[in-house]
């Protein structure tokens, strides 16, 4: 594995990936950059697009919630959203440019597995969620609060869970279109298969909050980041190579039973995103726009 191991390299990565507040990057610019990533993944028919388009969907919805004033401190939430997103964007751009040694171990696991063109849609989504929430979110939270107490942001931090919950079934509908396993489980009566993923996200965000507190109070932030990155990468690896043979079989057969059209999946998630923006937020979407 070429991922970063030294404290010095991690420090360079951290400072490189969080170049935000001095540059006044807006959430609109973040959405443009995420859209570019999704476009790249679609053109390459890459499994990296599974998480990328999910993240674009979520970012659009959070942006509308900010614009409608649904958080306690909407300006602060935009700062958090941008710092948080830039960590993913910078990691993707480094990887896409071939600089694989310039990404965290957590993102290395997710990106490398996608390049192998294996695995279920849900595996790739959860690998991205694992790296971004379990590692990046705690760091972004501390930077948003300028390394002061993170307590004032807890309510808005928690409210994001409610926003994500609303999107679960919509994403599940699209995944079911491509995954025979998901369709079968739903026909057997489990209408909320992805509630497992929903729970995983909520659990990860809780863990991210505790990590943010530890990281914020750490006397050696470099060491804390390295240790956390290693743990998150190891957890991500368990999605790729499960020790339980039955889980491994489930993932292997499940992947074989999925429709192999990564670009089609991206288009369908984008269509669902447009529907949510139109119906929930009354946004006029250009139906002729092509990503």
Verbal overview:
The chain has 291 residues and is mostly helical. It has one domain (7-279). The chain contains 12 helices and no strands. Helix 7 crosses helix 12. Mean pLDDT is 86; it is low at 2-23.
Produce a short descriptive summary.
The protein has 291 residues and is mainly alpha-helical.
What are the SSEs and their pairings?
Layout: H1 7-17, H2 27-44, H3 48-67, H4 74-96, H5 105-115, H6 121-144, H7 154-178, H8 180-187, H9 195-217, H10 221-240, H11 245-256, H12 262-279
Helix pairs in contact: 1-10, 2-3, 2-4, 2-12, 3-4, 3-6, 3-7, 3-12, 4-6, 5-6, 5-10, 6-9, 6-10, 7-8, 7-9, 7-12, 9-10
- Order of SSEs: HHHHHHHHHHHH
Proportion of β residues?
A: under 5%
Beginning-to-end CA distance, first to last residue:
33 Å
Main sheet, how many strands, which sense, barrel? none
Number of helices: 12
Mean pLDDT: 86
Q: Which structural class do the helices and strands define? A: mainly alpha
Give helix % range.
over 70%
As residue ranges, the low-confidence spans are 2-23
The total domain count is 1
Number of strands: 0
Overall form: globular
Q: Please compute the radius of gyration using only Cα atoms.
A: 18 Å
List keywords for this structure.
291 residues, mainly alpha, disordered N terminus, globular, 73% helix
